[in-house]
Amino acid sequence: MANEIKNPIPTLKRNATASLLIFFSLYFLCNIASFAAVPKDIFLESKELSDAVFFRTAFGSSAESALNFCVLLSSFGNLLAVLISQSRQIREFARQGVLPWTEFWVSTKPFGTPIGPYLLKWGFIFLMIVAPPACDAFQFVVSLKTYPDAIFHAAMGVGLLLIRRRRSRSNTPRSNFRVWWALVILYLLAQVFLLVMPWIPPEGGIYAGTISFLWCTYMIVGIGIMATCGIYYYLWMKVLPRWGNYSIRSQVISVDDNGANTHRLLRVPNSKVSEWDAAHDDLGRVCPLSG
């Protein structure tokens, strides 16, 4: 989304740093205020959220309604940010040709907005609100997201290190906007911690986690889902082309009049691969000389 920001590099360097500092300071002060106003024993004995205990202790029971509004406002802001960012991710996945009905996900008709990814996210959010029952089912679905997220984030950190190493070996100039090495390593270590620590059983035994059944079930299911996706991709991109005597090639196509384009993965017979490669560049666009 940096291409939608005016002067993105100086803007991100200045505003992103300021935003993180402000957010960290406010978050830190909120924690200090909570423990300064509420004794530790009350927090330990209470089964309510810590914010509810803080508001009732500091401002009285009538102030809890104000807390509900603050939670609603915070959730709405987070919903907007997640909806935009993850919808863009879905659209970019589709643009690489890895999702069926590519044109549907990429098209910005009729409002100049990719409706398909937004509808998908809306559907999942609505399902999470109305479908899972209380207790185990809801907690399991929420926890199921965390472990694959940590895997992706760790892979992103490793990928960034590999890209920097490759750029250094090829003498490619440094990017104008880059994160410090120390922060990359710290981020990667944090993700490794999130991948390792959940496997340690809780103190009360293997059934004493946030769910009534085996505490690591959500991690096993998450890994299983990712493994299934990997097997599907390997069969689709490696095994089936070998059996069918064809190769997968990417083609760039225009989706609508708003400038949206995408990649379409085509099955090119091996006998015509050389001809295809000669007529298209690496991105799948038709070479000018080939017409």
Automatic annotation (TrEMBL):
Carries keyword Protein biosynthesis?
no
PANTHER family assigned to the protein according to its UniProt record, in alphabetical order? AMINO ACID TRANSPORTER (PTHR11785), METHIONINE TRANSPORTER (EUROFUNG) (PTHR11785:SF353)
Membrane spanning stretches: 20-38, 66-85, 119-141, 147-163, 179-200, 206-235
Where mainly found?
membrane
Transmembrane helix found in the keyword field: yes
In terms of Pfam families, this protein maps to: AA_permease_2
Keyword entries, A-Z: Membrane, Transmembrane, Transmembrane helix
Query: What is the membrane topology here?
Result: Multi-pass membrane protein
One example of the protein's molecular function in GO is: L-amino acid transmembrane transporter activity
Per the record, what is one GO cellular component? membrane
Highest taxon of the lineage: Eukaryota
This chain's protein is named High-affinity methionine permease
Task: From the UniProt record, report the name of the gene that encodes this protein.
Answer: MUP1-3
Q: Where in the cell is it found?
A: Membrane
